[in-house]
């Protein structure tokens, strides 16, 4: 197999592994990857390669390795003895390139996977001026209507619509300033 | 009307929509298709479309009006794409509008209290080195009948900062009225 082909297949395999385990592309199966990328390998040989690469990717992602850690890790892997244990220089290079380009996105996926509370999917708002009301409230009051779109991964959104007057908004802003202060104090410590 | 103004973010999202073949675009509008576009671009596409459809439904726009508005929002919409949007809206628009109206009237609440927490997700079973700070909010909401419910949600730090900035905009808007 020519070198360029090997590199291409490796890149494709790593990409496919990421698509399946981090980007939720369930249609990507081991068979699909084998047929597309390594048609000449036996099923057992491909399975071994696939499992090895998958395990390496998971280790790298789980530790969120930086450049130094990755190099140390890959060097150790290439020195491992035994047919199924070691990693070739080519594979190490492919893993290094792969991690550089996918790290941010995989991290985002992992953070998302570990969040079980609903996330904020969207926020829209408008300001209305009340002109009349059945309860006889004075007209001319400005009111903000805020719609929060909340949702857990894979679930439909929950829309929460809330009304705020100026006093309320200022109360909220005060709390947010407290949160920001808290964030800043942590950032300054680290 | 917020959401339909043109920004460079909208333009590039619109251009990305133009890259999708028209029949795929039609599929994508109601369910995600497996297209190899950069992830954030795809998320932006879905949000832009959902946001436009919801705004159009709220204002009971006709298909012609929706397409005209989209064109005002960005010059980059491909003709074929607008045709698909027009067709979809003609078929489904009024149904969405009716649903939204029923939904909105029942559910405008007052926020009675807001509690917050700044947390750090350290590690999880899928990732030993998560190190991800987050802001968690717990809202106590009273609906029009006085019934109280709790809504909680989490945000990443950048999301929180965006949230904060939007409330500043709301405050400014209330002051100018």
From TrEMBL, chain A:
Family: Belongs to the COMM domain-containing protein 1 family.
This protein's GO CC annotations: endosome
Annotated ranges, domain COMM: 119-187
Protein name in the entry: COMM domain-containing protein 1
InterPro entries according to UniProt: COMM (IPR017920), COMMD1_N (IPR033776), Murr1 (IPR037351)
GO BP, one annotated term: copper ion homeostasis
Organism per entry: Clupea harengus
Upper lineage: Eukaryota, Metazoa, Chordata, Craniata, Vertebrata
Signal peptide range in chain numbering: none
Pfam families per record: COMM_domain, COMMD1_N
Automatic annotation (TrEMBL), chain B:
Gene Ontology molecular function: NF-kappaB binding
Signal peptide location: none
Domain COMM positions: 110-177
PROSITE patterns linked: COMM (PS51269)
InterPro entries recorded: COMM (IPR017920), COMMD4/6/7/8 (IPR047155)
Pfam entry (one): COMM_domain
Function: Scaffold protein in the commander complex that is essential for endosomal recycling of transmembrane cargos; the commander complex is composed of the CCC subcomplex and the retriever subcomplex. May modulate activity of cullin-RING E3 ubiquitin ligase (CRL) complexes. Down-regulates activation of NF-kappa-B. Inhibits TNF-induced NFKB1 activation.
Family as reported in the entry's similarity comment: Belongs to the COMM domain-containing protein 6 family.
Listed name of the protein: COMM domain-containing protein 6
High-level lineage: Eukaryota, Metazoa, Chordata, Craniata, Vertebrata
Name of the coding gene: commd6
């Amino acid at each position: 197999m020519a070198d360029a082909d090997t590199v291409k297949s490796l890149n494709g395999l790593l990409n496919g592994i990421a698509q399946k385990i981090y980007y939720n592309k369930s249609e990507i199966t081991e068979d699909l990857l084998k047929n597309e990328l390594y048609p000449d390998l036996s099923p057992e040989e491909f399975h071994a390669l696939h499992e090895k690469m998958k395990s390496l990717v998971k280790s790298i992602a789980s530790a969120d390795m930086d450049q130094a850690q990755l190099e140390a890790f890959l060097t150790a892997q290439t020195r491992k003895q035994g047919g199924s244990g070691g990693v070739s220089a080519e594979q190490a290079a492919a893993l290094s390139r792969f991690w550089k380009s996918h790290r941010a996105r995989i991290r985002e996926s992992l953070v998302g996977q570990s969040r079980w509370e609903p996330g904020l999917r969207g926020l829209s708002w408008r300001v209305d001026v009340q002109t009349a009301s059945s309860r006889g409230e004075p007209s001319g009051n400005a009111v903000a209507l805020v719609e929060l779109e909340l949702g857990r991964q894979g679930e439909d959104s929950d829309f929460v619509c809330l009304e705020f007057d100026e006093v309320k908004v200022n109360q909220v802003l005060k709390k947010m300033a407290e949160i920001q202060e808290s964030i800043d104090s942590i950032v300054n410590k680290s | 009307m917020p959401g339909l103004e043109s920004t460079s973010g909208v333009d590039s999202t619109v251009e990305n929509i133009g890259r999708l073949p028209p029949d795929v675009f039609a599929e994508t509008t109601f369910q995600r298709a497996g297209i190899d576009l950069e992830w954030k671009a795809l998320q932006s596409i879905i949000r832009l479309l959902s946001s436009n459809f919801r705004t159009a439904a709220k204002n009971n726009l006709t298909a012609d009006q929706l397409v005209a508005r989209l064109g005002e929002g960005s010059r980059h919409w491909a003709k074929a794409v607008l045709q698909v949007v027009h067709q979809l809206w003609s078929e489904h628009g009024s149904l969405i509008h009716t649903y939204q109206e029923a939904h909105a009237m029942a559910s405008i609440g007052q926020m009675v209290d807001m509690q917050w927490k700044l947390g750090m997700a350290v590690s999880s079973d899928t990732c030993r080195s998560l190190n991800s700070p987050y802001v968690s909010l717990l809202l106590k909401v009273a609906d029009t009948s006085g019934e109280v419910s709790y809504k909680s949600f989490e945000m990443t730090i950048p999301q929180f900062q965006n949230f904060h900035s939007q409330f500043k905009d709301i405050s400014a808007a209330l002051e100018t009225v």
